[in-house]
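SUBJECT: A protein chain and its fold
Encoding: whole-number codes for local backbone shapes
RECORD BEGINS BELOW THIS LINE
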Amino acid sequence: LLGSTGCKTTFVQHFADYNANAEVLNESSESNAEIEAMIAPYKAEMDAEMNIEVGHLDQDIHKARPNSSMGNWFCDMLLDASDTLDLFPNLEIDFAIQNLGGLRLNNMAAGPLTKGKIFELMPFDNTLVALQLNPSKVQMLLNRIAEYGGWPISKNLAFTVKDSVATDIMIHGKPLPAKKMYTVLLPDYVANGGDDCHFLADISQINCDKFIRDIIIEYYEKLTAAGNNANIDNAKRINISK
């Protein structure tokens, strides 16, 4: 599975294991009935938890390359959540990225946003980390994104892909300078070298020690309690040069 290498075991895998075991015991209807009876209270409790609404999507969103409404929504959410939830105190975050394969849904319909839907979107136990990158490392990271044909990126970042290389890079509306450090948010999977980002693996990480899906849930819960909602920006951030 894309984006899953090196990830921890998830609740999805636990239930897949249960289903596999149930198939083995399928030859005994009596044993099956006992198992179903045993797991029923836990399943009911999990279903109730997963059906809790934490927020609302104002429009249908879709995953695509090089740009997408889902990608913009997701990375802007990471960026805003880091500030709203004070995930990285005393750090000024410049932009956020997410590997496309780490988002496991292609579409999400407008309407109530439940915990279960967020778990479907982000089933892996990835945490959110901050890396401080010099312009050379930023260029390497964006080149890797360009080679993939685009990944979700947040506001404050824009660039053009030409011959699989990131060009015309703009951060906070300014060109990438020769000397400056940037603070970037990304999944620990990518920071640890996943998706061929091996050049990041030796960089010190600042880890907020929270799963990304839990951050999204907490972020939406806080917005909803304040009577607010997350914006969905459909602006094009990655251009493809022909």
Summary: Residues 29-50 form the longest helix (22 residues). The longest strand covers residues 127-133. Residues 75 and 154 are 5 Å apart (CA to CA).
